[in-house]
Amino acid sequence: MKPLSLALSMLLAVLLAACTFGFDPSSTAIPGVTTGGSAPSNGDTATVTRIIDGDTIDVSMNGQTYRVRYIGMNTPESDQVCYSEATQANALFVQGKTVRLVKDVSDTDQYGRLLRYVYVGDLFVNQALVEQGFAEVVSYPPDTAQFETFKRLEQQAAAANRGCHPTGIFDDGSYTR
Q1: What residues make up the domain containing 162?
Q2: Which of 33, 78, 119, 128 makes the best surface tag, with the fewest CB within 10 Å?
Q3: Which is it for the CA torsion 43, 46, 48, 49, positive or negative?
Q4: Is 69 noted as a catalytic residue in this protein?
Q5: Which conformational region is residue 154 in: left (phi greater than 0), alpha (psi within -120 to 50 degrees), or beta?
Q6: How many domains in the chain?
Q7: Active site residue: 113, 116, 154, 162, which one?
Q8: In the chain, how many H helices and how many E strands?
Q9: Is 177 a catalytic residue?
């Protein structure tokens, strides 16, 4: 298969999988979902160099590479249902883009990853993934500034069967890990 044909086939497979779970990659918003707002002026600017999964990325900032874990949310792990869809949704939002990384309270987690809220322009990526159903809200004290907002948005996504919610992956009834 020619490289262009292979690339087009892979893109089509990604889009079909994403549409299966109610994600519209042609838009960062779906009816009734508000994923916008204005990005805070504080924080650091970086370029996304690699998508690790639905809630973790690598970025280049000031000549160094950093691993960034999104605050306040969790996505399926590699051995779980909807992992690929959540990872693809994250990639569609941030792959290769310039992002603004905003800290809550903690700088890093126990694995040395930066803990951040992530913005692409005015798109609040953490919020968009929760709203569109590709992430569940999780409270990781002391970084809880968005917890109540994310909780409300996850409840709406679940009620609307958006993203991964139809699979039951987020149905453990817990907001902690």
Answers
A1: 35-167
A2: 78
A3: negative
A4: yes
A5: alpha
A6: 1
A7: 113
A8: 4, 8
A9: no
